[in-house]
Specification:
Elements (H helix, E strand, L loop, with lengths): L2 H42 L1 H10 L5 H21 L3 H19 L6 H23 L6 H5 L1
Helix pairs in contact: 1-3, 1-5, 2-3, 3-4, 4-5
Length: 144
């Protein structure tokens, strides 16, 4: 193999390595704001959120509110930091699926249909994080 071919092959692997190092960080940063914004909006209108949870028929609406805020804000921040990422992503995936089934299951309503599959898709992305971890640029990566 010529020196040029070896150099070209090495550059390609360097690029792949760089992408595979930064992709988990980018994925975590891109998925977290959805949860953070949702959690913050719940904090901005707690009574309305508790009322909405209660109207769905769930018991202990105040506890549900607190759990949702914890998962969305705490989980969103933990994802960005890459802290206990697999566990956090798994909990958030369960939360996204539960939310889809409880609050967005009216599939005859086009808006709810979209929200349902948005939550299912988010759960899929979170399960990728569960499977592949936080990556190099994370608190989990530093603990190794």
């Amino acid at each position: 193999m010529s020196q040029t071919a070896i150099s070209s092959e090495a550059s390609r692997f360097d690029a792949v390595g760089a992408v595979s190092s930064f992709a988990p960080l980018a994925g975590r940063i891109l998925i977290a704001p959805l949860f953070l914004l949702s959690g913050i909006s719940k904090l901005a209108a707690p009574a309305a959120t508790v009322g909405f949870i209660a109207s769905s028929g769930l018991p202990l609406a105040s506890l549900g509110f607190a759990l949702a805020v914890l998962v969305e804000i705490g989980g969103g921040l933990a994802l960005i930091a890459g802290y206990r990422t697999r566990l956090v992503a798994a909990a958030m995936a369960v939360f996204a699926i539960a939310t889809a089934l409880i609050f967005h299951f009216d599939l005859g309503d086009q808006n709810q249909f979209i929200h349902f599959f948005k939550n299912i898709s988010i759960a899929g992305g979170l399960l990728q994080i569960v499977a592949f971890g936080a990556g190099r640029f994370s608190l989990d990566g530093r603990r190794r």
